[in-house]
Every structure is written in structure tokens, then in C-alpha cells.
Amino acid sequence: MITLLGTALASEGTEFVYRGESDACEGCPYRKQCLTLSDGVRYEVTDVRDGGQTLDCAVHDGGVRAVEVEPTSITAQVPSKGAYAGSKGKLAGPCPHVDCPGHEYCVPKGAEMDAEYKIDEILGDPPQDYCALDRELTLVEFAPSEDD
């Protein structure tokens, strides 16, 4: 899928969560090419269009470039009970322990707390030695979103 992305993010392998239209997009001549993604979905840049020009943008200081993106998987921690490849899983819930080495997987960007996701792969034990909220967690890979 082709879209326009800020030049600071426009490199192969960059991952981002699309957050929808900004107020600054109103009246932009490139809206139809730029606003093609699904809100809240995590994407990965798979290609930067060669020879593409940098276009002015009211949102991105350095302008935007044409890139190809696709929805990407999300690494997360889920309750261990019932977590296996092919099953559906949910995040365990919010966590206030932002200094924990596993926090980014308990509250991963691009995943909603109450949503169910297909577990593509079991990655194993969490990066932290213990959970401060006394949760039994397993590190998994959620399948890419199928919204698009």
C-alpha cells in the first residue's frame, strides 16, 4: 500500500502507528494520497519510492515522501493461561510500572487494551524477572492487523 510519510520516518524498516488525520491536513492537496491508512494500526515501511520528490507538509517539518507500507506484527505480553500460537489473546491490562523492562510489551504501541488479537507465535518468557502486578505473562507476536 502506498502512502505519504514524513521524511524523518521514510526509511525502510521504520515502524509507526497511524493516528489519523491532523487538523493541519485540512485543505492539503495531497490528502487523498496521504490519508490512506487505518487509524490505530501499526505499519512498517517496506520501500521508499526511488526518485520521489519531497512534498511540503503542514504536519511534518521536513515534508513527506512516497513510501510503501504494510501492517506489521506487534510483540506483546499476554496472560500465559490459554496463550498458544493460533489462539486469540488480549493484553493483561494497564501497568503503571514504566521502569519495568517488560512495560513496552504490556502496553505496546498499536494494540488496544480490550481488543483481541490472533497470536502468531509464542516468543517465550518475558524480559522481566517478575511482574510487579503478580501476573503470569508470556511474550507473543500478534499477527498483523487485517483491517486493510
From TrEMBL:
Stretches of the chain forming a coiled coil according to its record: none
Pfam families in the cross-refs: UPF0179
Family designation: Belongs to the UPF0179 family.
PANTHER family: UPF0179 PROTEIN MJ1627 (PTHR40699)
Listed name of the protein: UPF0179 protein GCM10009021_14940
